Amino acid sequence: MAAHSAIHIERINKSYGDFRAVSDLSFAVQHGEIFALLGPNGAGKSTTIRMILDIIQPDSGRIAVFGAPLTDAARNRIGYLPEERGLYKSVPVLEMLVYLGRLKGLSGSEAKKRGLALLERFELAEYARKKVSDLSKGMQQKVQFAVTILHEPDLIIIDEPFSGLDPVNRLVIKNLLLEFRQRGGAVVMSTHQMNQVEEMADRMLMISRGQQKLYGPVDDIRRQFALHAIIVQGSGDWSALPGVVRVEPGSNGRDGVTLHLAEKTTADDVLAEIARSRNTRIEKFELAIPSLEDIFIRVAGKDGGQ
Questions:
Q1: How far apart are the C-alpha atoms of 88 and 106, rounded to whole Å?
Q2: DSSP-assigned beta bridge partners for residue 56
Q3: Please, are residues 68 and 57 in contact by the beta-carbon 8 Å criterion?
Q4: In 54-193, which ranges are continuous DSSP H helix?
Q5: Is 92 helix (H, G, I), strand (E, B) or coil?
């Protein structure tokens, strides 16, 4: 299995003195997917990423990247965007891109060509010869992302990629990541922006106190937490419908009302009753599946948010 995964991790552990940062963690990241790594602050996400990148070593367990322990050659196939941004502030933007591209094995001319193309796409071409310090925070974030993908890696590991970006530039980054996945690249995305995970991620791992809490396809995990209820929008006496035991207005931060159902009542039963009723008009009808943010709060809250 490891040979077919971008990342394959088996039962890794990492402690700092008496503090267990990561505990018996196992997961895999496949080529052609966006994988979300979630958890509250201090959960062990950064420690896990640093172990994948071989910045620190696990105390025990096994990590394979592209099917083997990380080598220098494999390292050049990875793009890493850390949360603590690392640009050279006093260096012109294009000069810095060329320098960092050459560190990843590109020729100077190829690095310049790719750098100019990325600056054009990010609408930063006019800033190519400006110092990084002259750019706004959002512009610097886009340059940092350009650095991450300049050498056309097979695996991208990104920490809070949308931090500091306005909606237009968030869309630019999002589209680049979706294109990267479409080409067969693997993305590990650590973020607190749950709406981005719902929109983009194929699978996810949520950890808390260094331990796995949730792991699998995003849609499957959301369905696991579905209430025995439906959300409807329209008009009518919802409480009069057979099988409805409680009506909750404005639940889950959505429009409409939530109809909590009796144990043996199904959503299809209620829909059939609505269709038969002459006094009920319906505009929306959906299962009460919580958002990832709701699930995150519920799961992380059990551990005191640590």
A1: 19
A2: none
A3: no
A4: 72-75, 93-103, 108-121, 137-149, 167-182
A5: strand
